Amino acid sequence: MSQNELTPRQKRFAAELVAAKSLRDACEQAGVSEATAKRWLKQSAMRALVRELSHQMLEELTRRLRQLGGQAAETLEQAMRSGDASWSARIRAADSVLGHLLKVSELLELEERVSWLEEALKGRSGRHEP
Question: Per-residue pLDDT tens for 24-33?
Fold first, then answer.
C-alpha cells in the first residue's frame, strides 16, 4: 500500500499523530479508536507518511529557529556592546533560541544520516520495509 492509497481519515490521523503529545490525543483529534490507530501504524505506508510529516515539521521548525537565530545573535551582540543589566532576559531568550537551533540542526542531520543508512540497508538486503 502506498501513501496515495491511504484514506483521508488515515492521512488526518497521521497529521494529528505528528502534532499530538500522545497516541491517545491524536486518536481523539482524528476521531479514531486506539485499536484502529495501532492497526494502521503497522502499515508501511502509514509509517512512511508519519516519518515524512515528522520530517516536514522538523524542517519547518528549523527554518523558524534559523530566522530567530539571526535575531538572537543580534540581541547578544547589542547586549555585549551595551553592558546594560536590563538585557539579561533578552540574553537568556537569545541563548535559548540558539541552543534550540543547534539541537534541531543536529537532529535533522542525524535523521538524514539514519534515512541514508536505512536506504543503503534496504538495497543490500532487498527488503522493502523499515
Answer: 999 999 999 9
